[in-house]
Amino acid sequence: MALCAPIQKLSPASSLSNGNNTTPRRTRKNETMIVRMTASSDVAAYEEGQLERPKWAGETPLSRLVAALISFKPIYTVLKFGARQVLISTAEKNNIPWREMSKEILESDVYKEMESVQNPSTVYPDYYLSPFHAYDEGNLSWLAAAEAEAADLSMTRRAIPFASSVGEANRIMRGNWLETIKQHHQQYSGEIRDILDIGCSVGVSTGFLAHYFPSAKVTGLDLSPYFLAVAQYKEKRGTPRKNPISWIHANGEDTGLPSKSYDLISFSYVLHECPERAIIGLLREAFRLLRHGGTIALNDIAPKSKTLQELSPVLFTLMKSTEPFLDEYSLTDLEGRMKEVGFANIKSVLTDPRHRTVTASVPH
């Protein structure tokens, strides 16, 4: 995914009109979503709920009821279908061409990219083989990879309901995330030369990072060779970059990359798909890979989000039906685990109504 202008601090209350079209559009050349960005004065302050986590997380009566429903296979099948339809419906209502985008990938030459991105020696951890996001094969399928970008845009639109368009929603959500990263790194470190985007999926977050930090060398790493094949295919068809993005098929808990190789390591919407043991493994590996003063940035679901704490029973049941480790993630003391691994200067901020960005540094 490419951007057309630098992103700075964004706020839902800011003036969003600068004469540019903020609605995503398709380009014949790179078949990706283009978003124009404008700047404003402050990273938005979003409201936290009264609880540490939603009532539907953990060992509450509500959570146990939802878990019982999901564990009954006929009901789970219906819920899985419903969760998928919610995303598709959101996409279609907001002019996101879900089916068209998926069809274009599935009928393209994307399959030829698999051989060059796949590492045959990669071992998949047991949790990764679980069904995710209404796909029985989880992230290890062409359909999941083909629909990933449309699903990302649909999720973005649901996260920013006050935005006038998908483009504006993307501008706010991604802009606040990037600005938070920049502010943290400027405060505690210096230049960003090398960036690793772990759990990069089809390269949406990786493209934003590459555009926002154009002088840096950016690498996207993921466990799914299907996602990486799509990422590489789309990158090849896009506008050439001064520093082309590299793609690595590996386990983020054990990348095999050299220690102290990166100034910034980003995880975008990755940790809520992992059990706590995997979250700890990812944090430890990121700590090893970062240089002294390097920044880790974790962008994910915010358990303290007022919006999520007030979700209707139907919506949170649908959400939990496609996120097998959401409870475990919600119960994890992320900041505490980061401190145990060795990170310092830990900060957490809601960068949109549903998501937080947690940043921290490797001590000098």
Secondary structure blueprint with pairings:
Blueprint: E1 2-3, E2 25-26, E3 33-35, H1 61-71, H2 73-93, H3 98-106, H4 114-117, H5 142-159, H6 166-188, E4 194-198, H7 204-212, E5 217-222, H8 225-237, E6 246-249, E7 262-268, H9 276-289, E8 290-301, H10 306-309, H11 313-321, H12 326-331, H13 334-341, E9 344-350, E10 355-361
Parallel strand pairs: 1-3, 4-5, 4-7, 5-6, 7-8
Antiparallel strand pairs: 2-3, 8-10, 9-10
Helix pairs in contact: 2-5, 2-11, 3-5, 5-6, 5-8
- Assigned CATH architecture: 3-Layer(aba) Sandwich
- What is the tally of helical segments? 13
* Structure summary, number of beta strands: 10
The secondary structure category is alpha/beta
CATH class: Alpha Beta
- Portion of residues in helices? 40-55%
What is the makeup of the main sheet? Answer: 7 strands, mixed
Choose one word for the global shape.
globular
What does this structure look like?
This protein is of the alpha/beta class and 364 residues long. The strands form two sheets. Strands 6-5-4-7-8-10-9 form a seven-stranded mixed beta sheet, with helices on both faces. A hairpin with a 6-residue loop joins strand 2 and strand 3 (33-35). The longest helix has 23 residues, at 166-188. The two termini are 33 Å apart. It has 13 helices and ten strands. It is globular, with a radius of gyration of 19 Å. The chain has a single domain (2-361), classed as 3-Layer(aba) Sandwich (Rossmann fold).
Summarize this, please?
The protein is an alpha/beta fold. The protein is built from 13 helices and 10 strands.
